Amino acid sequence: MLNAIVWYFEKNYRLLKKEIIYNMYILGISAYYHDSAACILKNGEIIAAAQEERFTRKKHDQSFPVNAVEYCLKEENITADDLEIVAFYDKPFLKFERILETYLEFAPNGISSFLKSIPLWIRKKLWIKEIIRQELNYSGKILFSEHHLSHAASSYYMSPFNEAAFLTMDGVGEWSTTSYGVGRGNQLEMLADIRYPHSLGLLYSAFTYYTGFRVNSGEYKVMGLAPYGEPKFKDLIYKHLIDVKDDGSFRMNMDYFNYNVGLTMTNEKFNNLFGGPPRKPESKLTQR
To answer: 238: which of 26, 129, 246, 285 lies 20 to 30 Å off by Cα?
Structure first.
């Protein structure tokens, strides 16, 4: 009888120990762009997720998500020492390469924008790995995913499908602005992309700016107002701003945009095309 009890205890202790050993925690982080956030997974299942703005009460807070990370860890009652991997949502060095190449291509134009953006990169954005280690007191593995693969993963891995096509469209990641591919099992394969500066997201943000709203914040206001407008500028947009090909790919006419190297989204040529300067923020809304 005693031997049976000992055997039962040892067997279940080994199973319990095995379960503890094989609990894999992965922490995902986004920061330093807009809407910083954190998410924690246990054995592939989401345990907790939060945006930093929920704790700081700063809308679109882009700072390192210290509070969101703390919340996620507390939800599972673990510390950073229990993490197997910390993952960041894009590749900062690849993005910095794109920014530098763009400024060099248009130099000396864009010097004001260059002087405004580069210090932040030198001070923080290039040192994400070191910042993560310091903020979390973490010494383990840190992985960096390409921006559009992060978008695809957030949709595909949450879906009920074992195989699916995916399409991602946003402002810009490292270089990609639009991409498509296939997810099979736990693998994502990017098949093709459209690259910066040709971007539907930045086209939308250009109109967000032109209609007097804050870029990366007020796009939802433009969307909400759209049903009250009329599509009278549609042909003008297709004729001058964007060339959409038969296969769905597109190219933008950069003569009308300033976001490559400027501090604004649009330029004087854009203003002339639509009959005047951008609407001043908080001014009266008109049909135009």
So the answer is: 285
